[in-house]
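Protocol step 4 of 6: structure prediction from sequence.
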Amino acid sequence: MRKLSKPRVGTVMALTTMAAALVLAACTPATAGVNVGDTAPDFQLTAVDGKAYQLSEYAGKVVVLEWTCPNCPFVKRHNEEKTMAELVKKYPNVVFLSIDSSAKSQDYYMDPATYQAVLKERGLVTPHLQDTTGEVGKMYDAKTTPHMFVVDEKGKVIYNGAIDSKKTTEVQTSKDDVENYVDEALAAHFAGKTPGTVTDEALRLQRQIRRRGAVEEKSSPTTSFPTRIDSVRCAGS
């Protein structure tokens, strides 16, 4: 019987390294942020009313994802201006889901009962899903609140960015000088056009205002996003 030769040390080390890499790949989320054109990562979350929502259940429909937090000054402004409510009314065939990635350990976390009371008081109409582990926020690399994603009928991301061009938390009665980027993306899509690439300046500015406590601040269009934190955080946190 022919004796089997012992594998070389270098070969064993290479195989061990490869095996470790495969295990690491299997344990690491496949998606860490999405870009326009990417397939939107599937997820399942429970809303504050106890109902479960899974993104893949809406295949064949356009879905708008809004990262939110009731205590965020920008979110409060949009609540008062009925920004999301107007979009829901304008696009009745679109699915709108609001996601709150506040961890239970954070002081602005709301238990479901309190959350529902706030939604009722503000007249908010979209389902509010709680992502208390921050897992979904990390999958999408949601940076601030609100951060918007539009997913088309095929599950592809066609928009990723700010909700509009407004650079302040102050509520204004006129929206004549405000570009609603989500509205523009949806209108372009339903017109058979590719949504244009819009500036992410407003989204970046929200992050800067939240971090520095300013109300208005200039921002260079070429400045990159700040390094994201472990979970999506509200302004003032």
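Step 5 (inspection) to follow. The first strand starts at residue 44 and ends at 47.
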